[in-house]
Amino acid sequence: MKILYRMKGLKNYRSVFFYIFVTFILTGLSGCSASKKLHVENVLIEGRANPLGINTLTPSFSWQLRSDGHNVMQTDYRILVSTDGDFLTQEAIVWDSDWVTTDQSLYNIYNGQDLDGGTTYYARVAVKDNHGNVAESAVQSFHTGLLSEADWGEAQWITNEKLPDSLVNPLPLSSSKLRIDKSYELPVFRKNVNVDKKVTSSIAYISGLGHYELLINGQPVDSAVLQAGWTKYDKEAYYVVYDLADRWQQGKNTIGVLLGNGFYYIPPIKGRYQKHKVAFGLPKLKMKVVNTYDDGSKETIDSDSTWKVHQSPITFSSMYGGEDYDERVLSTSWSKPEYDDTAWDNVLLVDGPPLRAQETEPVRIMERFGSQAVNRIDERTRVYDFGQNASGIVHVEMKGHQGDTVRIYPAELLNDEGRANQKHSGSPYYYQYIFAQDGEISWRPRFTYYGFRYAEVRLLPAGNEEIEIQKITAEHIRNGAQQVGSFQSSDTLFNQIHTLINWGIKSNMVSVFTDCPHREKLGWLEQLHLMGPSVQYNFDVERLFAKSLSDMRQSQTEEGLVPETAPEYVHFDWGGDVFRDSPEWGSSSIILAWYAYKWYGNKAFLTDNYDMMKKYMHYLKGKAKDNVLYHGLGDWYDLGPERPGFSQLTTPGITATAIYYYNLKILSQIAALLEDNEYKSYADSLQNKVYQAFNEKFYDERDAVYGSGSQTALAMPLYVGLVDEANEDKVLANLIKDIADRDTSFTAGDIGHRYLLQALQQAGRDDLIYAMHKDDTRPGYGYQIRKGATALTESWAALPTVSNNHFMLGHLMEWFHTRLGGLGQEEGSIAYKHIRIAPKMLDVVKQRTVTYESPYGPVMFEHDGERFHVDIPANSRCTLVLPESADYRINGEKLDAYEYRLTDAGLEIQLGSGQYNIK
Predict the structure, then answer these.
(1) Which parts of the sequence belong to the Alpha-L-rhamnosidase C-terminal domain (predicted)?
(2) Nearest to 588 by CA among 503, 682, 523
């Protein structure tokens, strides 16, 4: 009946035929009972669900299969793309892939008619499986972005004031002679729009530099903050696409936009913290709205000279100094239709950077913490404790009087007097609000954030009446990437460590992966390849990794250097180039791209960055002396006798050259995959030369150690393959001896710690890893928790003189997921197509549960001490490695019902997709 009802609206017999074709051919004629066993879900277009604004006209399509059966594999797929969401006419179809025989469900590339920019399309995916089932997805949509300047039509960049060209300085030194003496006001913009028809479609494209908040009729259009994400603004900026169809009212409407400086412009205001000086220009706006009405007509609203501008009530905004709001500057109704803007100024037309649609998730308020305790320092000063150190802002509800000022100092730590201590996290940083009239307000800063657990509130009344703080909340902000994994075990300390590291990740995951959420907020690159394996088991950061690699491409110099931070906003002019040029940092341009390809299966990670990789390797070859690299920071923040910082224990050149060799090893594999045989031969040849040079320079044959013999000096060569096979056992024995001689303490730092863990895992010494990190009486994760840390700290010893919320050093999280949880891939597998679950230390950690949303679907492994439970998604398979036993029963069946074999690793059982209970 449903089909007949819909057919009544079709115009001709051809449409009727086509509708029946789509409905029955795509759904299949295999019967209702069969079709219920297979579902097509989580369809992604260019890696996003129903994306608004993609940067290509040949998008990729990925999907997951769900089934209540076992051993389910895709055999064929079919994709339809149409300009009509109902798929009612053949003329609307721009691509019919027809049935394609393959099990590939990731990144299938569009191959139909030419698509147009700024246009909405619809897609449906159908799949057949190896059991004869056929299923189709729900209708998906995607909107192509504005891919050229011409696509923006008449829209122009508008502002209130232009920074003189002589002051534009997109890459200054931290102590440069950049002098901006004038204080520039932040702008707000208004545009009135009359709507006298029903709006059926409204697509808005907006870029506000550095950040913006968009309002329609006084209401924000979404809950995102710090839009759009920051990037290398002299190369490109991001715009965001919105569907505003339900935002318009009949009659007069108003578009309102506030701007913040972000990293586009760091205001040089005395009395506020300023990490560095950067001035790409002053805040500006570009916007285009295309409204389609029920009569088929269209209207385009462009940012142009007809827009109005006024000084913003945000009188100061800095990523490093905080934010001030003066309610006296502008009526709170300024963005509503009834407001009279005749006294406002006309905007100024200016130039701006090239634009690209933002593809990463926006930054959002992800968690909120109420005050757990308050300490009244005096009648006008109180300190609130939110219980968790996190990146965020303070939201305050308060009652005051005309002219009253409230000032808030967020901080990670407290000083001896119980007040906010910003000494080592960037000072002074504060939020300030000035009342324009008596009353109650609810306020949060818009265009800045900080890392804090405490907030010191100073009440500065204009008269004798008191200011009342009614409610105060810490709002944790981070990138909106979906959580895709979890870890729990019977070991309480390990669970606490996982949470500790997770807060370090969450607090430094915005539109870049930062080092810390307060004093620097810079994208130090070594973290990406060292912490990336931990992050990807917990969050869907495929697009954020792609953005990080894009930042590297844009920050790469003409000589080929990939600097230590990207986007690169500053050259630190102390210590020479040591804080700009370290191979262990710049090599994320190669290592992260390779890792991400293996994790997600997107070949674009390789093709988009291949030229950057080769250019960087050419740069490193030029820096090498007899094929050995000596420059850079080395094993930053290792545990030595001195205050942490520069590498203390490892001979200079070992970490840099080991990474150099590892790069060449990876590039050889990438070149082979991309069928670049010439470069593969070159990489292999250079790799052999580096191998020989490294061993000649650093290996001590008599003592079987490299360089100083530190844990890092031994572990890195072992892991990357620089140790001759005849010497591996001796070098490993010396590594283990050093750990044992230190009573299982570790000394490795930022660079070496992950490689120490990996080398021990390769040797099957998870028992040592356990012992090294189980003791909380010496510097390490447990020690940080004992010292009161609630997020991963910059130093192993949780020193109060450094950051207490940092991204580096969290490598043990990877061990939780891959060794205790056992989750990994078989050699040669891409995107967890062939999962390998091989849990370790089952007799020590009695219970553990690990979950992971792989590109093919949800994976779970659980051991409750007696039995195992395994979930394997459709269209993938698993090798499960358990202790040897002939008595296992899998879903009630004897082991003989499954393919298995006994190996040195244990009993390897081959499982197809499905759920399995094993005891």
Answers:
(1) 827-894
(2) 523
